Amino acid sequence: IRTSPGNGSVTLTTLGIHCTASLGKTSHLFLRRNEKRMHFDGANFIVRNAGHSAGFNENNLLIVY
């Protein structure tokens, strides 16, 4: 676990998970486990798995990539 109170961020890395979160200028939550990923930046929520992506945009519309 790494934290940075100056910019409001935290990183957690284990053998199976990598997670970052920040409340600074680029607020976000990112979580990765193998090929599975989740990202939220305060406006968009996206989940990725094995080359497929889907999520909600800033207008709460479901987007499939």
Outline of the structure:
With 65 residues, this protein is mostly beta strands. 0% of the residues lie in helices and 57% in strands.
How is this structure best described in words?
- The protein is mainly β and 65 residues long.
- The chain has one domain (2-64).
- It is 0% helix and 57% strand.
- It has no helices and 8 strands.
- The chain has strands at 2-4, 9-13, 18-22, 28-33, 36-40, 45-49, 52-56, 62-64.
- The protein has an 8-stranded antiparallel sheet, with no helix packed on it.
- Strand 4 (28-33) and strand 5 (36-40) form a beta hairpin.
- It is flat and about 35 Å long.
- The N and C termini lie far apart (32 Å).
Shape: flat
Q: What characterizes the major β-sheet?
A: 8 strands, antiparallel
Q: How much strand content do the residues show?
A: over 45%
Q: Give the count of structural domains.
A: 1
Please state the average pLDDT score: 92
Helix content: under 10%
State the distance separating the first and last CA atoms.
32 Å
Reading side by side through the largest sheet, how are the strands ordered?
1-2-3-4-5-6-7-8
- Nearest-angstrom radius of gyration? 13 Å
User: What would you call the structural class?
Assistant: mainly beta
Uncertain regions spanning at least 5 consecutive residues: none
DSSP summary: helix tally: 0
Question: Tally of extended strands?
Answer: 8
